[in-house]
């Protein structure tokens, strides 16, 4: 069984916080490609930013996520991805109409159970790296909620609870598989 586990879902829903909690418990974690790209582009004055050139941003996100996938630890333990290749590919495919999602999903599979953070307006915050509003986050969530089952993944929506409870929930679900 594939040990690469995706944590996906709504922007601002607590994915990065959950990843940090799982890392504190000793699990390897891969940070969200999009946020790393935004940080790098802002640092170097680049334009591959979602609010300047969405297509360039998504193409960079696909490349970064592919590299993350190929370089992730393969030691049999759970490795958690804050977003991943399929999130970026789904967004790029929707934007460009290019059929990038299916080929990537078959060559870079993840664990069959994908965890989605639901929309959670009470904790959503914009910041210099997340400039879109809740409406854009909801659209993104709906796309992911629709895409993952079409690719053969089972979606598990995370409960709106403390990060510790969420981490326990994820690990319990994975142990049951």
SSE string: EHEHHEHHEHEH
Overall pLDDT: 89
DSSP strand count: 5
* Assigned CATH architecture: 3-Layer(aba) Sandwich
Beta-strand percentage? 5-15%
Count of domains:
1
Distance between the termini: 9 Å
Biggest beta sheet attributes: 5 strands, parallel
Low-confidence stretches: none
Shape label: globular
Which homologous superfamily in CATH is the superfamily?
A: P-loop containing nucleotide triphosphate hydrolases
Radius of gyration: 15 Å
Give the fraction of residues assigned to helices: 40-55%
CATH class: Alpha Beta
CATH topology: Rossmann fold
Report the structural category: alpha/beta
Order of adjacent strands in the largest pleated sheet:
2-3-1-4-5
Number of helices: 7
Summed up:
This protein is α/β, with parallel strands linked by helices. It has one domain (4-176): P-loop containing nucleotide triphosphate hydrolases (Rossmann fold).
What does this structure look like?
This protein has 177 residues and is of the alpha/beta class. The chain has seven helices and five strands. A five-stranded parallel sheet has the order 2-3-1-4-5, sandwiched between helices. The chain is globular. The model has no long low-confidence stretch (mean pLDDT 89).
Keywords, separated by commas or semicolons:
single chain, 177 residues, alpha/beta, Rossmann fold, 5-stranded parallel beta sheet, 12% strand, globular, P-loop_NTPase, NadR/Ttd14_AAA_dom, ATPase
């Amino acid at each position: 069984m594939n040990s690469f586990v995706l944590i996906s879902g709504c922007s601002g829903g607590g994915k990065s916080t959950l990843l940090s909690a799982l890392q504190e418990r000793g699990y390897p974690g891969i940070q969200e490609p999009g946020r790393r790209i935004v940080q790098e582009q802002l640092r170097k004055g680049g334009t591959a930013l979602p609010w300047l050139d969405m297509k360039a941003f998504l193409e960079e996100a696909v490349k970064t996520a592919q590299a993350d996938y190929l370089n992730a630890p393969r030691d049999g333990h759970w490795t958690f991805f804050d977003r991943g290749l399929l999130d970026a590919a789904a967004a790029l495919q929707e934007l460009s109409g290019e059929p990038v999602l299916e080929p990537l999903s078959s060559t870079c599979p993840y664990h069959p159970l994908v965890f989605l953070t639901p929309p959670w307006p009470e904790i959503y915050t914009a910041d210099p790296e997340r400039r879109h509003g809740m409406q854009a986050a909801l659209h993104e969530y709906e796309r992911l909620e629709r895409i993952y089952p079409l690719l053969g993944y089972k979606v598990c929506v995370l409960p709106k609870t403390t990060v510790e409870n969420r981490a326990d929930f994820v690990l319990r679900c994975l142990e049951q598989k």
